[in-house]
Every structure is written in structure tokens, then in C-alpha cells.
Write a structure and sequence with these properties.
By secondary structure, the chain is an alpha/beta fold. The strands form 2 sheets. It has a 4-stranded mixed beta sheet with strand order 1-2-3-5. A two-stranded parallel sheet has the order 4-6. Strand 2 and strand 3 form a beta hairpin.
Length: 211
Amino acid sequence: MTHEPGEVLRIAEELFALSKQEQTELSRLLDRTPLSALIKASTATTGRLDFLSALEHLVFEPVAKGRVKERTELHRILENECWIFGEEYGLHVSDRSLNEVLRQHCRLLGRDTPAPAPVLREDGSRGIVDLMLSRAARQRKGERHHLVIELKRSNVTLGMSEFTQINSYAQAVMNDDRFRDPKVTWDFWLVGNAMDDGLRQLAHQPDRMPG
């Protein structure tokens, strides 16, 4: 393996510049974790911090947030960075119907392909889910937790119309026997920048679960 002399010199200078305590701490780290793993972890952390900074600009900066489109931009950005909703989650559905949510739900549980009848909302429509994530339960083996996320563009103030949409997905899941399984729990999140007073009062009711 070859190295650029300048890079090797800089690394050596940084190592010699460490205090005695810092050298001891580095040695202890290396006893537990290879240097290559430490570098990868640091690089990943830096990349995620840069991503969060850019995302904050996109969704909160007054000019930028009015230009960011929901489906073709914000959605595509977040579907590749699902760790933002929880490191343990995996993405299983993106911009697909509730039928695909059902299919993935059954696949994750090791079930046969469900009956072909469509999953419908109360108004008879199929509905398109932005993201469905899933993770294995942290404490109970064999159990899973699904997270359905509805994204709204940054300049939309969330209100009862948006709440009705995400609630219709939850109702469709609850009303369809093919989803039922005691080993699975569900959360439905509506994600946006701001909400109106009516939705804020509903969200802050003491008996309402977070999300």
C-alpha cells in the first residue's frame, strides 16, 4: 500500500501533538476498536451532521422552503436517509399504495402473499403511503414495529385535512383483518414544519400517544 508523503507527515504530526492523556485515551480506544472502524464512524457522523445542516436549510430557510417540492425532492431525499427517523428502522415501502404496505407487512412476518382484494380507505380510495419503515422489537423476540410516515412540503401548515389523510391510513389498517397480528404494533406520523391551532390542540391532548 502506498501513501502520499504529505498525508503521512500530517498524520504523524497530529499524533505527536496529542497530550499524554489524549494518547492514553486513544490507546484505550484502539484496544477496543480498530482505527479503521473509528475513522469510518467519524466519517459517518460528520456526513450525517452535514446532511442535517443541509436539511435544516431546505425546510426552514424562508426562500428555500417555498421551493422544495414534496414528492420529487423532499421525499426522495429522506427515503435515502431513513436513519433520521431511527437508526434501527429499515425502509420497506416508498410512494406506494396500502396494498404494498400489506404485502410488506406479511413478508416481514413470513406469511403467504395476502388475498388480492385492495386495501381501501373509508372513502373507497386506495391511498398512497409516502414511507413505511419497520424494525424488530427491542425487547420481545419475534415482534415488529411498523412506522408509516406522511410527509408534507415545508410551506404547508398542517391542519385537519392533513390529519384526516394520515388517520385514514391508520383506519384502513385497523379495519382490514389481513393486517391483524398481536406481534405487530403501528405508528402513523404526519411530518411537517408547522401546524394550525386546531391540530395543535388535538396533538397535545393528554390521552393521545406521541406521533
